[in-house]
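I am still learning, so would you mind making up any protein sequence you like and the tokens describing how it folds?
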Amino acid sequence: MCSEKSKEAGMDKQPSQAEISELIKDYGQITLCGNKFGYKIHLLNIIGEIEGHENLGNNAKTSKYEHILPQLVAVEENDEIDGLLVILNTVGGDVEAGLAIAEMIASISKPKVCLVLGGGHSIGVPLAVAGDKTFIVPSATMVIHPIRISGTVLGVKQNFEYIERMQERIIDFTVGHSKVSDTQLRNIMFNTSELTKDVGSMLVGAQAVDNGIIDSVGGINIALNCLFDLINSGKNSKITEYGFMDE
């Protein structure tokens, strides 16, 4: 393993276990470089609730966009980082914060793989499809439902139009980064016959693949090997202005 913290401190040696634990505790992120190819893989762990512009309670496990976005910029800018592995176990959260992270992941030029463990619910769906390749373990679930609004909602036409436009942003991103069609995603999202207290659907493992939202069923070994393949492919290709082009 190798950490950015040790580089900032001017150290070339491997970080101590205490430093590694601190990075994981503070940010849920670390750079891995002990694989057979010697590639440096940045691990991004998105867990709990995606925190927006307001702090959630102290007892809530959250992923904070002010931590994640700068780290993703650093991944893009750092020539020593070869690829990005995103691990998801999230209940969803703030729509704009989630979409911001998803757009950032999708726009990174380096190979990136997303793996859903446990759950990738609500705004976690765009996050799950943001990688070049996406995986889900057999027991993981994805709850796909329309936007929920908490707090005071003005009962005026303009407000409902705004909510609908936010919904379209989620649908457009998900459709644009997966194999699911617009019509199929809407049918899943607005299903009224499955969830007892909500509108939407719960997809388990292979169901997310069958519906074209996730590419394949697989765990960490398959996800990492896929990422290595993407990196190998890129290193053996011509680099163009907008990415890689096979020779």
Observations:
- The longest strand covers residues 41-51.
- The two ends are 33 Å apart (CA to CA).
